[in-house]
Amino acid sequence: MSKTRRSPSLGLIVLAGGLSTRMGRDKAGLPWHDTDLLTDQLLRSQAYPFSERIIAINRPYTPHELPAKLGRTVHLVADSYPGCGPLGGLEAALHSGTSEFYLVLSVDLPFYNFAPVPDLVKLLRHQPDLLAVIPRTENKQDQPLAALYSRQLLPAVADHLQKGEYRLRRLYQAVPAAYVDESFRPALYLNINTPEAYEAAKGRDANSCRQVPVVTLTAPDSGDGKTTAATAAIAELTRRGYQVAYIKSTHHIVTRQKIGSDTDRAQKAGAVSVCLCGPADVPEGLSKEDYILALSQQQLADLVLVESRSHGPFPRIDVTQADTGTLVDDILFLTGYRSSAI
C-alpha cells in the first residue's frame, strides 16, 4: 500500500526581481487588465487558498490595488544574492517563508490561471518524498518557474548560489522530483520577455474577449503585399480546417465586387465571407476601426482577417516585418487557436 500524507501547507512565491534586460523595462509593472502584471497575477492567485504570498522583488512595490484580505497575505523580500537570477529570488523567499511547499511563479506569466495547482498538490500527498514537482509542456519542456518546491531545499539553494551555480535545473534534477504532463494547456506557461512578445500577449488577450477573434494585416504603403499575404494565409488556414472571413478596409467609395479584386482573390483563396468597408459604410459617430470590429463580430467564421493600412482592429501584423514562414502560426496564436511560444 502506498503511503500518503496530509496536504502540505502551500504558499506562493512570485519572482519579480529580474532585470528585464530583453524587455527594456520592469516586467512586473507592465500594464495588464487595468493594473500591472504583478498585481494581476496576485489577483488571479485568489483561485487557490495559499497560506502566504511572497514577492521576491528588489525595488519598491505597494500592493494598494489588492483587496485588504489578499493584501494581508503578501509580503516582500529582496535578494540576499543579487544578480543571481531566479535562484537568488528563490533563496530569499524560502528563507523568509513559513510554508512547507511553494508554488514558484515568474511574474511574466500573464495567462497562468492556477488551475494546475490542485493536481500538483495531490502528487505531494501520494508521494511524500518529493521535494519538487515540475510541469512539462510541449516537447517535454520543463517549466521550473511554474513549479512546486519544498522549503527543505533552502540549504541546497544556498549551496548552489555560494558555488556560483545559478541554474535552477541543476537544483531540481538533483533531488526527488516528479514531472507532470501539461502539454494540453501550454498557453498557461507562456512568458513575455520582449516588447514583441508583450504586444502579442495583449493581442491574444484582446481576442479572448471577442466572440470571433480578429487579426489585422497591415503595411505602411499600398502595394506592400497585404493582399498577397492575406490570400496566402486564407488558403493555408482553410487547408488546416479553419473557416476564415475577410474584411477589406478601403478609402474608396464601394460600388460592387469586381473579378480580380482583393475581395475576389480572398474568396477564391477560400474565405467563407468577404466584406468591403469604405468611408460611406461607417455610421455617423462611429470610428472606422470600431465599425470594422463590430462588422467582424457578425461573421459566421472561426476567425476574421482584416486588411487595412490604418483602420484595422488590434492585434495587427505588419506584413512587411513579419516572417512569411510563420505568418499563419502567428495568426493562430493571436486568435487563441495555437499555444506555441511567443
TrEMBL record:
Reaction equation(s) it catalyzes: Mo-molybdopterin + GTP + H(+) = Mo-molybdopterin guanine dinucleotide + diphosphate
Signal peptide interval: none
Protein name, per record: Probable molybdenum cofactor guanylyltransferase
GO cellular component, one term: cytoplasm
UniProt xrefs under Pfam families: MobB, NTP_transf_3
Entry note about domains: The N-terminal domain determines nucleotide recognition and specific binding, while the C-terminal domain determines the specific binding to the target protein.
Function: Transfers a GMP moiety from GTP to Mo-molybdopterin (Mo-MPT) cofactor (Moco or molybdenum cofactor) to form Mo-molybdopterin guanine dinucleotide (Mo-MGD) cofactor.
Main location: cytoplasm
Annotated localization: Cytoplasm
Domain Molybdopterin-guanine dinucleotide biosynthesis protein B (MobB) stretches: 221-326
Gene Ontology MF terms in the entry: GTP binding; metal ion binding; molybdenum cofactor guanylyltransferase activity
Cofactor(s) needed for function: Mg(2+)
Similarity-based family: Belongs to the MobA family.
UniProt binding sites for Mg(2+): D108
InterPro entries listed in its UniProt record: MobA-like_NTP_Trfase, MobB_dom, Molybde_CF_guanTrfase, Nucleotide-diphossugar_trans, P-loop_NTPase
Positions of GTP binding: L15, A16, G17, K27, D79, D108
GO biological process: Mo-molybdopterin cofactor biosynthetic process
EC number(s) reported in the record: 2.7.7.77
Transport keyword on record: no
Enzyme class: transferase
Naturally occurring in which organism (per UniProt): Megasphaera elsdenii DSM 20460
Keywords: Cytoplasm, GTP-binding, Magnesium, Metal-binding, Molybdenum cofactor biosynthesis, Nucleotide-binding, Transferase
Domain of life: Bacteria
Annotated MobA-like NTP transferase domain residues: 13-174
